[in-house]
Amino acid sequence: MSVLADPKIATSIADVPDDPVKRRREMSPRTRRVIVSAVQAFLVAGFLLLWEYASRTEMVDPRFFGRPSLVWEAFQEYIPSEVNKESLQATFAAVGLSFVVGSVLGTLAGLILGLSRWVDDVIGPFLVPLNSIPRIALAPMFIAWFGLTIQAKVVLAVTIVFFILAENARSAVRSVDADLMTMARVVGLKRASLLWKVVLPSAVPTMFAGLRLTFTYSLLGVIASEMIAATQGVGQQIVLYSSSYQINTVFAILIELVLIAIVINTVFRYAEGRLLRWQD
Amino acid sequence: MTTSLTTEVPTTGQPYLAVRRVSQVFTMPRSRGEQTSVEDRKVVALDNVDLDVPAGQFVALVGASGCGKTTLLNMVAGLVQPTSGSIALDGTRPKLANLDIGYMFARDALLPWRSARRNVELPLEVRGWSRDRRKARAEEMLDLVGLKAKASQYRLQLSQGMRQRVALARTLAAHPSTLLMDEPFAALDARTKLTLQAEFLRIWEAQRDEGEKLTVLFVTHDLNEAVLLADRVVVMLPHPGRIAADLLIDLPRPRAEHLGEVMYTEQFRQTTQTLFDRLEGAISRPGGAEATDGNTKAGTR
What value of ipTM does the predicted structure carry? Predict the structure, then answer.
């Protein structure tokens, strides 16, 4: 309350440029980035130190929770190993195949659903209930059908990915700007050329966002399938090490997967930037 | 329909565009939980409209929203079929993808993934022009609207005014004989608007001087714009959409070079005043069904 009586109040209003809130807003983007990175590094380091400390003092059981320094050792030991190379090959062959098959089938289905009222009326209502099946529950069945093969993994991953892309492509086609469509029709574009010159290009940004998800979910599907039963693959390795309490190696594998995901995501962003240069 | 302000438009033989007793009735979708009959949900967008336009005439359709001016344009483009009545454009019934028509919208409707030049090429692709010919024509058109340097820019890199220029270039690229323009400059700021009006009028008047007959139907809600650009102003009124006045504008041409001055001439002021009274009279008399007889003066109420 005494502030109200403060004779300096008038000058403090005039001094707005010195207001700390305002000055912080004027921070250059570069300084901002540096500070954000520093805080992030601090958070990660703090978390790791806490984990290390808790594990060494046995506040948490090191057998179940691992320890960062031992994870690093396991990482150095496991990553160059032959078994890792073989597992990665098996897993990513399946992921690649699921990605291609899933995105082609899903996108095609989505385009047909988006373009044809008839097909959408007949098939559309089945999609949501089908997509709500917890796909992991189908894994034992697919393994029974296809045996311990790459097909079993791919089929499971495709059942996940397909619906994401179908829905994605359908809404992308549906949401083409009405003005562009009117313009295109008046200009004289029809069927194939309308699809090729207006509908598909305007669906590309939405579909790209879907493709990035597709990779993540392909990996999810394949690893889940491998965890149920497989002769080789990263998922099978994870189960192996988990059940023999080698938690540090499990963490090492997870870190490896995250690193691969980051690389692939970067590739996607780069391709997206090149292909969608017109967006900015 | 007779109106006190109608000046008989001299036509020799068949008019280029003939609109005969055209009506358009939309049925609005029923809103949730509402018990309205089909009759109650009917909206008469156009009621018995007659309009003859000779080839090469620049006609402005002016009116408040809901008077059916865009609907009329869309019918000429073949996007909408009239509920009753008939339309003939150059002797044939309008159908979609009429390659003789150029249609320009208030929103630029540029394809954002194409450069300015490739946008202008779009109508030429439909007409099967070769790549080289398309490119040459697109560059010529961009030059005409003063955007030669921006040919490789994408939509997001262009200002609003530039986008409308590209749209104008695209509309004119394929040598249409009819231009349908739906408030093409409405979304622009006053200054840019005047520049583009002058630019467009310059192109049109140049074609006219070369003896080319480029018929224009120009929809606008801006009376000044209508009088400034057109040979003839058709005032339309809503509920139901109809023609209330039809006036020839005899401001001298070419006007493009001194649009700014034309606006301050006594003749311009008087013409605009006359039309304004006609519009205003109807606006201040809501549901003015008696206005259909066309003889009512602005001050009757």
Answer: 0.80
